[in-house]
């Protein structure tokens, strides 16, 4: 199941009826549990409540009788159902354009125009319109291009959770340098921090975001 923080949904255990070959919903599942209660909690009936961004597995046990084996003894089965609660991350959907940046005199660099998307853990779209996304960028220890600051902003998502973004770098070390500058891009959605931070790598002739 995928869902937003504050939502929820119920799990149903299904089993195959060996006499008819059909799948049927079964009652009697017990010991419901969530592997990460900071993401989702689950009650004794298998209803999960989404409490925080991330991923969790809901598990339960059920006793089923196996026809034709030692007078149909009960066998205990354990099953898992994954839950992805979002939003969790922002990733690039597509690169609209990229090339040499229009930099101040004495500098050169690269610009990359993208379509980004808010996503659940695992990459499914967090498909809600009107979510305000905003970012901050912090530079790492490797700063061979000598970047000293960043320009960030905010955007509103469309119905599939996407929005436009632009990445650029200008440096006096470019265009001749073969060095790089790394950074982390942290995101918020409607003011709530997302768990995942994007890894940025700036070069004179490329910019990658989480390897893309």
Describe the model.
- With 212 residues, the protein is an all-beta fold.
- The chain has two domains: 2-86, Sandwich (Immunoglobulin-like); 89-209, Immunoglobulin-like (Sandwich).
- 0% of the residues lie in helices and 57% in strands.
- The chain contains no helices and 18 strands.
- The protein has strands spanning 2-4, 8-10, 13-16, 23-26, 30-34, 40-42, 47-50, 54-65, 74-86, 89-100, 108-119, 132-143, 154-156, 162-171, 181-189, 192-193, 198-203, 206-209.
- Strands 12, 13, 15, 16, 17 and 18 form a six-stranded antiparallel β-sheet that branches. Strands 1-9-8-5 form a four-stranded mixed β-sheet, with no helix packed on it. The chain has a three-stranded antiparallel β-sheet with strand order 2-7-6, with no helix packed on it.
- The chain is elongated.
- The mean pLDDT is 92.
């Amino acid at each position: 199941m995928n869902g937003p923080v504050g939502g929820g949904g119920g799990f149903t255990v299904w089993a195959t009826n060996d006499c008819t070959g059909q799948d049927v919903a079964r009652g009697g599942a017990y010991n419901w549990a969530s592997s990460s209660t900071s993401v989702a909690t689950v009650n004794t009936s298998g209803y999960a409540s989404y409490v925080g961004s991330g991923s969790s597995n809901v598990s339960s046990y059920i006793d089923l009788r196996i026809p034709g084996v030692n007078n149909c003894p009960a066998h205990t089965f354990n099953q898992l159902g994954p839950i992805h609660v979002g939003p969790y991350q922002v990733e690039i959907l597509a690169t609209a354009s990229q090339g040499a940046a229009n930099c101040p005199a004495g500098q050169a660099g690269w610009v990359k125009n993208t379509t980004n998307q808010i996503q659940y853990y695992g990459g499914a779209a967090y498909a809600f319109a009107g979510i305000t996304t905003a970012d901050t960028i912090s530079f790492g220890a490797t700063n061979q291009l000598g970047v000293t600051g960043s320009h960030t902003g905010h955007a509103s998502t469309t119905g599939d959770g996407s929005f436009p973004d632009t990445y650029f770098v200008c440096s006096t070390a470019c265009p001749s340098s073969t060095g790089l500058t790394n950074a982390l891009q942290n995101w918020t959605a409607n003011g709530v921090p997302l768990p995942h931070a994007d890894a940025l790598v700036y070069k004179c002739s490329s910019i990658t975001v989480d390897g893309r």
